[in-house]
Design brief:
Cytosolic phospholipase A2 catalytic domain, hydrolase
Length: 304
């Protein structure tokens, strides 16, 4: 059975966690990418609109994909997504000039505490109580390995730390988050598209929400960025340097596997969609990306 066939069949049966009528384990994996996450956020919201969040057994998210996953499991993904273009959000979260004051360019503490908890009212308890398990994927800064933060999710505060750690972009997000004795860096360093973790955990089928266009190949970072991040990692987390250096090759391999494996189905950003940088703040662009992501998910569910 193919992935989207399983999604539709579980929806038809009214299947819920703990009472499945099939032998499969279905996971949702959400790619990271900073502001590009508006695309996968739209895809996740379309799943919510159709009442499909409970057809999954586990949800894996890397970086911003972990935050989207948390909103989906809270039951209010569409509400949370609206804060992408809320006028007070992005200019206060992404602040390029903050580097001149030695402050984080990407203020994840403000995003989690002020935007999501106080303004948007993200129900962290509902996420933790959901029988569909959340797996925020981070990078272990001292081992240079993928780290699934599910075992560290004990309460709302540890969930907030896990989400910040999963999205902790090297150099841009400030000091490294520590959780359960582990120092954390962005999950995108080691697993930007977290379907591998799902497969290692025994998933038989994985639906993958992407933040890149179908015609957008993996690219090497600009030289200035490469030098800056390499210097930061060499000083702060040298074990992660191999992961940083091999990211383009691993992303290319991911693309190849996702195109060919029958138990993996990816929903891609449509060809010709506008390019959204990971630090984009334009509310019109972000809203457009969200709408295109929702449309891509709707088309995938209809056409498959």
């Amino acid at each position: 059975m193919r992935v989207l066939e399983l999604v539709r069949e579980r929806a038809r049966q009214g299947s819920v966690p703990g009472a499945r009528k099939d032998p499969y384990r279905l996971a949702l994996a959400i790619e990271g990418g900073g502001s590009r996450g508006t695309y996968s956020s739209g895809m996740a919201v379309e799943l919510e609109r159709r009442g499909l969040s409970q057809v999954f057994d586990d949800v894996y998210g890397s970086s911003m994909g972990a935050i989207t996953a948390a909103w989906l499991l809270s039951g209010k993904a569409e509400h949370g997504a609206s804060y992408w273009w809320y006028p007070e959000t992005m200019p206060n979260v992404i602040r390029p000039r903050a580097v001149l004051r030695r402050k984080p360019v990407v203020d994840l503490e403000f995003l989690m505490d002020q935007v999501y908890q106080r303004w948007a009212g993200l129900d962290f308890g509902a996420v933790l109580e959901n029988p569909v398990r959340l797996h925020p994927i981070a990078t272990d800064a001292d081992r240079g390995e993928v780290l699934d933060l599910l075992p560290y999710l004990e309460n709302g505060e540890t969930l907030k730390l896990a989400l910040r750690g999963s999205a902790g972009l090297p150099l841009l997000a400030g000091p490294l988050i520590q959780l359960g004795g582990r120092r954390l860096l962005d999950g995108g360093l080691t697993e930007a598209v977290p379907f591998h973790s799902a497969l290692r955990d025994g998933a038989t089928h994985v639906l993958v929400l992407r933040t890149r266009r179908a015609d957008e190949p993996a690219k090497t970072p600009p030289r200035v960025e490469d030098l800056a991040v390499t210097t930061f990692l060499r000083r702060t987390a040298p074990a992660t340097l191999p992961a940083w250096r091999t990211r383009p090759a691993r992303r290319h391999a991911d693309d190849e596997e996702l195109r060919s494996a029958e138990n993996l189905t990816q929903v891609l950003v449509p060809t010709g969609a506008p390019e959204v940088s990971r630090l984009a703040v334009d509310p019109v662009l972000l809203h457009r990306a969200f709408d295109l992501g929702a449309e891509a998910m709707a088309n995938a569910l209809t056409e498959s």
